[in-house]
Design goal:
Layout (H helix, E strand, L loop, with lengths): L1 E5 L4 E4 L9 E7 L4 E5 L2 E9 L3 E8 L3 E4 L2 E4 L3 E7 L4 E5 L5 H5 L2 E4 L5 E5 L11 E3 L7 E3 L5 E4 L2 E4 H11 L1
Length: about 170
């Protein structure tokens, strides 16, 4: 499987001309303030490493699809900003990542047709969830384990969790 390494402040575009034939990167290293654009291809990331604190950006454009694998390592305070463009899909299983890394993740819906397929943590003690920006319609948030997802105070939540929180407050 291919390896993808972005150094600090590096920008890379992965499209039809340079994507691995099987569409998989076994190991992905995203350096501090790196930027990765995924253009019109379907990719899977295996083990992901986030070096140093701070953020990096992964942007899906022109109908791209990205499936995220296990977060192998993340420096304390490291996070990723995922920008989902028109007709693009991000598939994210939180169970494969550290709770702190998930809570430092931001997902931005930059188009009304952007879609997120998400599986929240199975362990109820791990309540971290990604920050959500933009205006995803309810049909653009898919709970891979069944049920519904919604945005609650700028964070992604199971519809049941958001209802429980609202009931507790009021």
């Amino acid at each position: 499987m291919a390896t993808l390494k972005l150094a600090a402040h590096q920008t890379e575009i992965i499209g039809r001309g340079n994507a691995p034939p099987e569409g998989e990167f076994g190991e992905v290293l995203l350096g501090y303030q790196s930027r990765l654009l995924i253009d019109a291809v379907e990719l899977s990331f295996g083990a992901i490493t986030l070096e140093r604190i701070g953020s990096r950006t992964v942007e899906l454009i022109n109908g791209a699809c990205l499936r995220l694998g296990a977060l192998a390592f993340a420096s304390l305070g490291a996070g990723v900003l995922y920008r989902i463009g028109a007709r693009c899909t991000l598939e994210f299983d939180a169970n494969l990542s550290e709770p702190e890394a998930v809570s430092h993740t931001t997902i931005v819906f930059v188009h009304a047709t952007a879609r997120l397929r998400y599986l929240p943590f199975a362990n109820p003690l791990w309540r971290g969830s990604p920050r959500i920006a933009g205006s995803p319609g309810p049909d653009m948030l898919e709970h891979m384990g069944g049920g519904r997802l919604e945005v609650d105070n700028g964070r992604l939540a199971d519809a049941g969790d958001a209802a429980d929180a609202a009931e507790a407050q009021g």
